[in-house]
Amino acid sequence: MVARFFLCALIYAILAPTLGAKLSMGRILGGSVTADGTHPYAVALRLYHTFYCTGTIINKDCVLTTANCVASVSYKNVEILAGTNNYNSGGVSYRAEDGIPHDLYDPNTRSANVGLLKIKGDIKFDTKTKPIALAVKDPGADLAVTFVVWVKSDNLADVPASNRLRSVSLQTMSTYNCIATLAGDHKIEDKFCTTNKGLCGEGGPLIFNKTLAGISSPIGGCISGKPEIFQSLSNFIDWINGHAC
Hints:
By secondary structure, the protein is α+β, with helices and mostly antiparallel strands.
């Protein structure tokens, strides 16, 4: 009995660091659930009450998301759920009056992956529903940013789908390092990259200094050792403002 006890203790001592590391990775991977009102600009885009993309409130009339999230559906069927961190309950539901993908959007390369949803009526602002200002330039390399998004069940097998909004702290990468890591897999002329902690979803806002610096534009899979890819907004400010409902 004593020998068995010491054998178990020895095995635990050997495996504990590895097990602890895996548990720690599990807590980091996929980010963490946010509380209601923490990111009041984030909205869930739904089709027939089913979540499909994340969007960002930029004023009382418009939600910014990717062109893919706009062009791939009929805006008449899009529901915008604001003021909640749960895409299945709570909040206030709005309908889209128009959907405007960028006219240079290329679904094959995902270039100019910027789109707007015009809201029927005005979005009512309160502590859980607020707009966010656009960043006038891209963040530089090696800077701390926050990625906010809902996760779809078909995005990753490694990260369970969550009907609650999630966030994760990331670090921006230089264009050189991003291209080197991607190894020519994708073109990123109008994109920038961050580190990848396994939180994957389309249209989610990337926050830098309390401004909207980019929106997630995933190309290919996630948790593959590749960087997260975000659509830059700095070159589209005039287009966004010109179409901002």
